[in-house]
Amino acid sequence: MPLISRICQEMASNKHFSKIPSNLSNNSDATDPPRPYVPNTVTFARRTNSGRYVNYSRDDLDSEIGSVDFNNYTVHMPPTPDNQTTDPSISQKVEEQYVSNSMFTGGFNSTTKAHLMDKVIETETNHPQMAGAKGSSCAIPGCDAKVMTDGRGQDLLPCECDFKICRDCFVDAVKTGGGICPGCKEPYKNTDMTDQGDQQRLPGGEGGGSKMERRLSLMKSNNKSAMVRSQTGDFDQNQWLFETSGTYGYGNAFWTKDGNFGSGKDGDGDGMETQDLMSKPWKPLTRKLNIPAAVLSPYRLLILIRVVVLALFLSWRIKHQNQDAIWLWGMSVVCELWFAFSWLLDQLPKLCPVNRSTDLQVLKEKFETPTPSNPTGKSDLPGLDVFVSTADPEKEPPLVTANTILSILAADYPCEKLACYVSDDGGALLTFEAMAEAASFANIWVPFCRKHTIEPRNPDSYFSLKRDPYKNKVKPDFVKDRRRVKREYDEFKVRINSLPDSIRRRSDAYHAREEIKAMKMQRQNRDDELLEPVKIKKATWMADGTHWPGTWLTSASDHAKGDHAGIIQPPSDEPLHGDSEGFIDLNDVDIRLPLLVYVSREKRPGYDHNKKAGAMNALVRASAVMSNGAFILNLDCDHYIYNSEAMREGMCFMMDRGGDRLCYVQFPQRFEGIDPSDRYANHNTVFFDVNMRALDGLMGPVYVGTGCLFRRIALYGFDPPRSRERSSGCCGCCFPRGKKKKNHIPEENIALRMGEYDDEEMSLYLVPKKFGNSTFLLDSIPVAEFQGRPLADHPSVKNGRPPGALTIPRELLDASTVAEAIAVISCWYEDKTEWGSRIGWIYGSVTEDVVTGYRMHNRGWKSVYCVTKRDAFRGTAPINLTDRLHQVLRWATGSVEIFFSRNNALLASPKMKILQRIAYLNVGIYPFTSIFLIVYCFLPALSLFSGQFIVQTLNVTFLVYLLIISITLCLLALLEIKWSGISLEEWWRNEQFWLIGGTSAHLAAVLQGLLKVIAGVEISFTLTTKSGGDDVDDEFADLYMVKWTSLMIPPITIMMVNLIAIAVGFSRTIYAVVPQWSKLIGGVFFSFWVLAHLYPFAKGLMGRRGRTPTIVYVWAGLIAITISLLWVAINPPAGNTEIGGSFSFP
């Protein structure tokens, strides 16, 4: 289909449209008289193969009817006493102020409403986002004067950061403050207040225009470069952008002085020339650090040796049967064949491990240093939207979520480019008010972090550090500031923890008041009649005395889990400035705060809301309408930012050469609150430091659900740039695919394309059928793609954008935009679209994260694994055995679902490399290993009970094979430890829990998956309980809790059977006439192998050390001895009829 972005450009440059009067035209003639403001109409069109444009009305989008040429008619109404022309800038200010003070609700079969809020929380707060700051007052603490205005009443904001300041404070800042803006701490560009009115107007016009105009791409050029054409005669977008200073952006366009977008060759523009780009050496943002050959070469050689030895060993085992116990031999051989196959699937993707590093200094030089294209040095980094997902405040404590939000707001990323969206899928008032409290405390916490370079920027983690907090702190007021902030945080925790009781008491008080009112009304209407008890729905009340539109504490119609309206609390119209209330000296500190938006999607009975994946897709659409960051970082509510520069590290990969082909950057998961011995392998370091590094050498790591930086257009289901020229298949070197020769735009100039459609075949009417009917969402797609491009600062950078294109902060919101965001999070929006099937997070699996990453890799995208020196993110993990088993059960169940779905790697497209395909195949197959693992764990016991072994005799050949296989396994483990950096203890813990999980959760997952496929039984999903960290007496109290679950039955059975079998084997051998010591040793060796792996499980069943009664061990020993003697009596050794054989009591 003609791309939306190309339509906008070609409409702007084609002669056929030169007669259309519009503020989007390329008219830059300064001599034209100013025209009155004319409301614009939004028209849709597509270009046919003949070059004509076909008109689309709003009613024709679904039917693609209309064959007339594109025309635009505008009716001018003269001003009358009832129709006075209003300056759009003034009306825009009024509307934005109204939006900032309102909570928007709406959804299916309901009107979108804006609830004007006087206050959000009961405590007083000056936070402009959540408290609803009103009026254009001076933002200087202690000053309540009005800001400077021009003759039309428009605010005069002397700094580009839009810090509101009154005339007196501005004069003081210029005369006594060195001309430094109190908000961003940057020097004022112009200290003459008489010129401020002109500086506030956009260079493209009088500062007016509709909201759609200001949000769409605005491009200007001089006549000599306006019609840059490629060799095919089409408009060459990249060449035009490179040779001129023309840029466009979704509210983030870079405007050159006086609106001049010339190339700079004639001295009439400030464009950057190719010579300027080549005058200094080009530096990469990232480097690939290969594993040393001294480690990697032996590693690969050992893999090859072990493969050969396994093949020879299995061949020998098949040829040498144990005729005395053919059933035992058969079961063991089948299990060993599967283990060899499973090990091969796990080991082959590890052949090409890599490490990577970033250079943050180069990132700062390229994007935040003054250059000819960016003379002010404003940040040129793209927008970033951070998603925090939560669903149940009872299982996910609000204090944990609030700390995660605070770590995001304090992150080291340009605050005007950062937005935080909190998804409350439960619609709970408790979560909303906890977020409001966090926004209030951010006024103090965020400036404190910036001033003293605090790490980590999660207040709970920071104040819980056991190291010296004053180390490397050079500012003399740090001690004083820290004490004050610590005191404020203690009060903040008290408020958060008291919110449930506070909400309940408030709701009870309002409910009692409503009952009294109803009773009075009843008495007034019925004087002498017998009064009946008044029944009123017990609502949940907000702090401003209105009903909470989400879920009530006492469920009611339209206010229950799964049945409530959509809610959005938009950011403020203020320039997002915090207020420290005089607690901290912030003379040299940037006190601005990022955007913070509360979102709770609409839920109604009868709709499948698709759990977490549906909530994430709702956030994708809402953020596209409101802020449209080119990149998305998703975090669980218990995963906070531990490294404030983590976002910049991820952006290094996205903005580097070739970064436009990266769909996401995955960070490793690190956990806190794990017991020192890591009994249940909660750190999972083998997966995150071995497997993921190895996948990074292929097409990239899998997506693991949190701590992942996404490219927005990759989530939209588009193919990567230059995908056709690179798509040669999994065996492209041997069987190259033929290419279709078409005369159209060069491959690198096509930015948005879906796999089954060519650029010329996909018509515009299909776009709403894929993404929905929101025009705001459709308009944001090409803009997000452009902002996500790397800088075109080197001739080898393909599909780049010009430097300095994203230096203007995003625009503020109006009511229509927020209303559109309410519409896109409604429960019906995804009907008859491709959301969840191709676009966004993919539905149909408990592990939606793995499936979503697989779909991107399947379209040819690549991903990168970013391991930072300081952990990027940290979270919590369940240390209780039962919770850990349930977590593993959910992961394994999702893998079984993947295996039986069309997401099976066997059905992958040719764009996926063969080793990457094997890695995804292993993801779907590994739970089935549990069937063979359980059988193999019972084999030693069966061998001891029967007196037989898996081989006829323990001959030298068998022992040599067994020795070589064991030695190669140990050597491979040591080399993996060498190149990955993990410890031997962590590797052994992983091996132990592999057997624990394989004999419990994985088997249950296979059974559940088979039930779903065969019988259609749905799988229930249970949230993993997050620890609130309130148990100060015992940090690891959950570790010793024994909560019974049926998943424990198989491991317990295996342990008991093997212990009894060892006792039986010893008894049989000792009392036998001809002891079979070789068979005993073989069986006992493998039984101890099983029991050693199950030791952490047994330790977890014992509870807290020292609390298990001694009698339990005595009883266990007596039972084992009794059963073993009973077995010998029932089945005595051959040639004996008495217990004990030749032994007799005196």
Automatic annotation (TrEMBL):
Spell out where the chain crosses the membrane: 296-314, 326-345, 919-942, 954-974, 994-1017, 1052-1074, 1080-1098, 1110-1130
Q: What is its main location?
A: membrane
**Annotated Pfam families:** Cellulose_synt, zf-RING_4
Report if keyword Mitochondrion is assigned: no
Query: Is Zinc-finger among this UniProt entry's keywords?
Result: no
Supply the PANTHER family for this chain: X-BOX TRANSCRIPTION FACTOR-RELATED
Q: Membrane topology for this entry?
A: Multi-pass membrane protein
Q: Where is the composition biased (Polar residues)?
A: 20-30
**Could you tell me what this protein is called?**
Cellulose synthase-like protein D2
In this chain, the stretch annotated as Disordered covers 18-38, 187-212
Per UniProt, the keywords (alphabetical) are: Cell wall biogenesis/degradation, Glycosyltransferase, Membrane, Transferase, Transmembrane, Transmembrane helix
Cellular compartment(s): Endomembrane system
* Gene3D superfamilies (UniProt xref): Spore Coat Polysaccharide Biosynthesis Protein SpsA, Chain A, Zinc/RING finger domain, C3HC4 (zinc finger)
Natural source organism: Brassica rapa subsp. trilocularis
